[in-house]
Amino acid sequence: MDTEIGSCIWHAHAKINLALHVTGRRADGYHLIDSLAVFTRFGDRVEIALADNDDFTVSGRYAPAVPLDASNLVLKARDALRREAGPSRTPPISIKLEKNLPVASGVGGGSSDAAAVLRGLAQAWALDLDDAGLARIGLSLGADVPMCLAAKPLVARGIGDELSMVPDFSALGLVLVNPGTPVSTADVFAALSRRDNEPLPPLPRSIDFHSLRNWLEITRNDLEPAALALQPAIGRALSWLNKAGSGFSRMSGSGATCFGLFETGNVAKRAAAEIRGRQPDWFVAATRSMPSEAE
Ligand code: ATP
């Protein structure tokens, strides 16, 4: 959180599924997953200030792709918190969303915006809600909101809401690449050929660039083959990452955003500049992941 005069800025991090195994499906249709996820410094920004009237505006590169009506997760989060706390404790609020993350792109931008709004409003309204309370309200908005509230390296199981934090996980150098093609999460899940895959193998005892890369080689994103068949541009994003020197490249979530893993931030920045030069219309960002402990 950063403070400006009269307002606070909250960071909505991109969620990157380093590995994602689909392990089953519940009777209600929700898929069961086993996923190692990290969250990046690069993301959306949410500015929150007390105001005379409720207000919501969106700026940034991806603003045109975001709904402004009640279906926006920012407004769903505001309204859910207001229902929980009651109108007398939740006065009018101005929310400005800077939408820097591509929409429907597998990095959980909407869920992360909702998480930032829950944290921001809980503080602006001085509500007495602990992390478990926020996670409960977050889960009512979407399965990925609790993990976006945590925003630290973690393993997510169940429908994505059973979280185990991973300790001693340093920041990673990452490049995110999206070829500009939205992918519907529902379409990708519907196209899966199998839903009963084995869970993730145990994590390495000590996580560094090399042990993580070796571990990633024996894991998968089970959504990648289906997403690739629906959107072949994902294959081009992966091959650009590989050509630019990524130590390991994979699609995140249901796509189409792909990540490349780099040993240092400087190498990641150079690779991002190279890909951006060749694909100026794509979304390309060099960033670092949030570590498990403050670094
Ligand atoms: P998931 O994997 O959770 O589906 P995603 O990264 O693929 O996440 P999002 O960018 O979160 O997808 O968008 C999913 C849908 O949510 C979009 O179709 C969009 O219209 C809707 N949406 C609602 N609020 C937002 C928001 N604040 N930002 C982005 N999308 C939003």
Kindly describe this structure.
The protein is α+β, with helices and mostly antiparallel strands and 295 residues long. It has 2 domains: 2-164, Ribosomal Protein S5, domain 2 (2-Layer Sandwich), CATH 3.30.230; 168-288, Alpha-Beta Plaits (2-Layer Sandwich), CATH 3.30.70. It has 9 helices and 11 strands. The protein has helices at residues 73-85, 109-124, 131-141, 145-150, 185-190, 209-217, 224-230, 233-243, 265-278, and strands spanning 2-4, 7-25, 31-50, 55-59, 93-98, 154-157, 162-165, 173-178, 248-251, 258-262, 283-288. Strands 1, 2, 3, 4, 5, 6 and 7 form a 7-stranded mixed sheet that branches. A 4-stranded antiparallel sheet has the order 9-10-8-11, with helices on both faces. Helix 1 packs parallel to helix 2 and helix 2 (109-124) crosses helix 3. The longest helix is centred in the middle third of the chain and has 16 residues, at 109-124. The mean pLDDT is 96.
